[in-house]
Design goal:
The structure holds two protein chains of two kinds. Chain A is α/β, with parallel strands linked by helices. Chain A has two domains: 180 residues, Rossmann fold (3-Layer(aba) Sandwich); 91 residues, no CATH class. Chain A starts with 10 loop residues before the first strand and ends in a 10-residue tail after the last helix. Among the domains of chain B are: 114 residues, no CATH class; 150 residues, MetI-like (MetI-like fold), CATH 1.10.3720. Helix content of chain B is 73%, strand content 0%. Chain B has 16 helices and no strands. In chain B, helix 8 runs antiparallel to helix 9 and helix 13 runs antiparallel to helix 15. Chain B is flat and about 95 Å long. The chains are: A alpha/beta, B mainly alpha. Chains A and B meet through helix 2, strand 6, helix 3, helix 4 and helix 5 of A and helix 12, helix 13 and helix 16 of B.
């Protein structure tokens, strides 16, 4: 599913579940996630905070283990990888964190931060090679002239510059996939676009796949136009498909609500725009996920006896290219407002 | 270790040579005072450290000199040239120079940070004072150990006590001995034992705390249980009881015992810090980059805690000193004169509490201990600034 037609996905999550223990209670953060990312693909994970986007990203990179289910790297389960294979998997997937102020160690200069992985994994020949590579990487992430940056400490850099250093650090080990976890959300709006363009360029030039985690559908639309979007809600993927289709013809009621809520720069449009009215504004707690479809208490198209009892599975939408987890929809019924 | 025999003319020469650097720099900047201060500091420490300690001193001095002559523009790595025009290969000599300059800059930033906080610098000066007192004092002031009887007795006095006078600046004790000489000679054993205890405490606490936090699980629970158990023991009464059973002839044994009783507090703090540092994004990134556990502990986690660890070490030195003085005062540790603690004990038991001219016998060691403690505590203020990584780049 969602294989994009290529031979073998780079990384694949199969029936991944993840819970965290909170004292005696179990908080189910991810439920039955199936997701595959191909080489050179852009995939956006979209959803509100607490829906499990970041957890999914961390499981992909191998920083978290799934409670059940399997993660496969190039077709091989990662928990069976040992030695060299495991190191290769580790290096092939890198993560860029949200907070540029916390993701760089304040005790090291930019040069040191980049030199550590280069030296450890012998990614460059000798001292001169390491120095040359550091320059190349800094040029690659548009931190020029590199000579002005290498000896600086993170606190001497701006948020955007730090985020670029994070990207350069991830690139030291020649990754195949970068998980960008809200990578631009804490950066000033004016430099977001240039950061996104840089990530795009890396993808085009080096064939790196990018998993872009964001809560901002507008950003996802801009960034992943050639890729796919996975919309998450309370630990499940509710809709998955090519970006243009999801943006222009969203199938799942939750995605529709999200898209209708995107603010437009023009206040006239925003005011005249028809917003979808949910039945409830409250997001249910992860401790008490509603039975059936987790969205049913809020869904305006709620069908009694179906949505609150049957767990929807991710299936192809009858008249679209995307997959959605909504029982009435995938059965081919027309969605009607609840109570009408 | 006999510090006195370590001092030698060679050390003095090294100290004088190294001391020329701050002097010349300060005179060129027309600020003679810090220059003279730096010269004296170099001279003293060179004298005290002798040849073995002199070598690192020479290295540090050379580093400072190099950092003044070396400019970053010499390094193509830091130039603004285009990538194609730069030759990144670096000769061994160039690398050594670059590293030395870096070290020199760090020393300069650290010494500047040391001076920045007034209270902290005062503490530093206090520690230097005790350093000088304990190492150079004995060379100037001979130890007055034998009891005097009637040769120092004043007319009509019923005891040998004397208040401060020109001849004896701190007066005489109950056996007519010079109190100043006891103060000068009596601090070293106490300070060394306290420092030993502090270092032992810190080493145990840091290792166990880091292990508990990084490995976790059952080991973590066991270590925590032990720590909590030791914390519930009232330490000082236990020490008093132990002192009744075991003789602390060897002061190092006492230091070990103090270390074994004192580590839980710091261990729990270190554990908590490592637990929080472990979750930092940059540590996670280091895991993702597969940099290995040794790198993560030594390069990512510990540098963030070093100021905390050193400051806590100073506090445990402080605690150990109080405990030792307390034990000696209660007479639970075999007396070895000269010793500040023994002076307090003897002063009290020989009736110094009730006689005005004997007050100096009691007050001198008390003030010495209190001043040393105060210097330690004040000095931690400067240490905070010295270890702050932001200052290293503040040049």
């Amino acid at each position: 599913m969602g294989d994009n037609g290529s031979s073998q996905p780079l990384i694949e999550l199969q029936n991944v579940n993840r819970f965290f223990r909170q004292g005696r209670t179990r908080v189910q953060v991810l439920q039955n996630i199936n997701l595959a990312v191909a080489e050179n693909e852009i995939l956006c994970l979209v959803g509100e905070s607490g829906c499990g986007k970041t957890t999914t990203g961390r499981i992909m990179v191998g920083l978290l283990e799934p409670s059940s289910g399997e993660v496969r790297y190039r077709g091989r389960p990662v928990n069976t990888l040992r030695g060299k294979d495991r190191a290769e998997y580790r290096r092939a997937l890198q993560i860029i964190h949200q907070d540029p102020f916390a993701s760089l160690n304040p005790a090291h200069t930019v040069g040191q931060i980049l030199a550590f992985p280069l030296q450890r994994h012998r990614m460059a020949e000798g001292r001169g090679g390491v120095r040359r590579r550091i320059w190349e990487l800094l040029t690659l992430v548009d931190l020029t002239p590199p000579g002005d940056i290498v000896n600086k400490y993170p606190h001497q850099l701006s948020g955007g510059q730090r985020q670029r250093v994070s990207v350069a650090r991830a690139l030291t080990v020649n990754p195949r996939l970068i998980v960008a976890d809200e990578a631009v959300s804490m950066v000033d709006v004016s430099i977001r676009i240039s950061l996104l363009k840089m990530l795009h360029r890396l993808r085009d030039e080096y064939g790196i796949a990018i998993v872009f985690i964001t809560h901002d559908l507008a950003l996802a639309k801009y960034f992943a136009w050639e890729g796919r979007i996975a919309v998450m809600y309370l630990g499940r993927i509710v809709e998955l498909g090519p970006t243009p289709d999801i943006i222009s013809r969203p199938a799942h009621p939750y995605t529709r609500a999200l898209i209708s809520a995107i603010p437009e720069a023009d206040p006239q449009i925003t005011r005249s725009k028809q917003r979808m009215v949910l039945r409830s504004e409250d997001i249910p707690s992860l401790l008490e996920i509603p039975p059936g479809c987790a969205f049913h208490p809020r869904c305006p198209f709620f069908v009694e006896g179906v949505c609150d009892t049957q767990l929807p599975t991710l299936e192809k939408v009858p008249d679209g290219s995307q997959y959605a987890a909504c029982t009435p929809l995938t059965r081919g019924q027309e969605l009607r407002l609840y109570g009408s | 270790m006999d510090l006195q025999s370590l001092a030698s003319p060679t050390g003095l020469l090294i100290g004088a040579l190294c001391g020329l650097v701050p002097l010349v720099i300060a005179l060129r900047n027309r600020t003679p005072r810090p220059g003279i201060l730096g010269f004296l500091a170099c001279l003293l420490s060179g004298f005290a450290c002798n040849v073995l300690g002199g070598l690192p001193m020479i290295l540090l001095t050379v580093a400072v000199v190099v950092s003044y002559t070396y400019t970053d523009r010499d390094d193509p790595f830091l130039s603004r040239a285009a990538l194609e025009e730069v030759d990144f290969e670096e000769t061994f000599g160039a690398m050594v120079t670059r590293r030395l300059a870096g070290l020199g800059r760090t020393i300069r930033a650290a010494s500047r940070a040391l001076v920045r906080n007034k209270a902290g610098f005062l503490g530093f000066l206090g520690l230097v004072f005790f350093f000088v007192l304990n190492i150079f004092g004995p060379m100037v002031i001979p130890y007055d150990g034998q009891p005097h009887f009637y040769d120092r007795r004043r007319e009509g006095a019923i005891n040998l006590f004397q208040g401060p006078s020109a001849e004896f600046p701190l007066g005489l004790d109950w056996q007519g001995r010079d109190i100043l000489s006891h103060i000068v000679h009596g601090g070293r054993a106490l300070i060394i034992t306290s420092v030993q205890a502090g270092v032992i405490t810190t080493v145990i606490a840091v290792i166990l705390g880091a292990v508990a936090a990084l490995i976790g699980g059952l080991l973590d629970q066991i270590l925590n249980a032990i720590a909590n158990f030791i914390l519930t023991i009232p330490q000082f009464p236990l020490l008093v009881v132990l002192a009744g059973l075991i003789s602390f002839e060897d002061r190092f044994f006492l230091a070990v015992l103090l270390g074994l009783l004192d580590w839980p507090t710091l261990m729990r703090a270190v554990r908590a810090q490592v637990l929080s540092l472990r979750e930092r994004d940059y540590v996670e990134a280091a895991y993702a980059l597969d940099l290995g556990l040794p790198h993560i502990v030594m390069r990512e986690v510990l540098p963030q805690m070093i100021s905390y660890i050193v400051i806590n070490m100073i506090f445990s030195i402080r605690g150990a000193m109080y405990a030792i003085v307390g034990l000696v005062f209660l007479g639970m540790v075999p007396f070895t004169e000269p010793d500040w603690g023994v002076m307090i004990f003897m002063g009290r038991s020989q009736g110094a509490l009730f006689s005005a001219e004997a007050a100096s016998m009691l007050l001198s060691p008390v003030i010495a201990v209190a001043l040393f403690q105060l210097s330690l505590v004040l000095f931690t203020r400067s240490l905070e600034e010295v270890f702050n990584p932001r200052l290293r780049a503040g040049l």
